UniProtKB/TrEMBL annotation:
Signal peptide interval: none
Any single Pfam family the record assigns to this protein: adh_short
SUPFAM superfamilies documented for this protein: NAD(P)-binding Rossmann-fold domains (SSF51735)
MF terms (GO), sorted A to Z: oxidoreductase activity, acting on NAD(P)H, oxygen as acceptor
Keywords: NADP, Oxidoreductase
Protein's name in the database: Sepiapterin reductase
Family, similarity comment: Belongs to the short-chain dehydrogenases/reductases (SDR) family.
Length: 255
């Protein structure tokens, strides 16, 4: 059997980059996608040197359908198939209360966190049906619990969870699972600590700062390993579920 071929979005840093690294080390062939230029990504330069035939990086904004189409085209052209997609690209901004959120900024949040996911699912489905592939949606606890001044992010993550549930209901030849990776030590958390206090209530912002200062954030490499294992091996009995990183059902997928 040939090694799995997976696509990872938001692959330039954080959870996405960690997922790429784990997937490559586990024997996958990986196409990473991100908005950052490869010239600015030293980690990716190293990966492409270490895995010259197994790793590929595609630069582009997944809010554009043409980018999603190009990712599929290049992946199938180079590797012949698509076995899994880790839908990780996302932003937490804008930080604002419901009453004064800039709707254009909220739409941009939805474009990245929700509509780009929908678009890539549409474009990959023909290949994913063939391979009985696995979609892993990187969701958030904010999909189920409102967080002060995160109305756009919370709403977009709740929406993407429901998109996954609908996909499971409609498409019987693929698996789709949404994962809450926990509070992970990434640039997104740094953004929350450095910029969130402008709109977030003090105690809520202090909770995130405290998790960082006490060393209680999940390591990106641990979250990435779990996502890589799931996109390779997720069993059918997890299909259609929204699961926490520490859920007992995922014990076999943690380091």
């Amino acid at each position: 059997m040939s090694s799995p071929v997976i696509i990872v979005t938001g692959a330039s840093r954080g959870i996405g980059l960690a997922t790429v690294r784990s997937a490559l080390s586990l024997g996958c062939r990986v196409v990473g996608a991100g908005r950052s230029k490869i010239t600015s990504l030293d980690a990716w330069k190293d990966l492409l040197q270490k895995y010259p035939t197994e790793a590929s990086y595609i630069e582009g904004d997944l809010c554009e359908r043409s980018v999603a189409q190009e990712i599929v085209k290049q992946t199938v052209s180079k590797y012949g198939k698509i076995d899994g997609v880790v839908l990780n690209a996302g932003v937490v901004e804008p930080f604002a209360k419901v009453k004064n959120t800039d709707i254009e900024e909220a739409k941009r949040c939805f474009d990245i966190n929700f509509f780009s996911v929908w678009t890539l699912i549409q474009e990959t489905l023909p290949e994913m049906r063939k391979s009985h592939g696995k979609y892993i949606i990187v969701s958030s606890g904010a999909a189920a619990h409102a967080i002060d001044a995160w109305s756009a992010y919370c709403s977009s993550k709740a929406a993407v969870n429901m998109l996954g549930f609908c996909l499971t209901n409609e498409e019987k030849d693929v698996i789709c699972v949404s994962i809450r990776p926990g509070v992970v030590d990434t640039d997104m958390q740094k953004t929350i600590r450095e910029q969130g206090s402008v709109a977030m209530d003090g105690p809520v912002h202090a909770m995130f700062t405290g998790l960082y200062e006490s060393g209680k954030l999940v390591k990106a490499e641990d979250a990435g390993y779990q996502l890589a294992k799931l996109v390779m091996e997720c069993p059918a009995d997890l299909n259609g579920q929204f699961l926490d990183y520490m859920d007992e059902k995922l014990a076999a997928f943690r380091k």
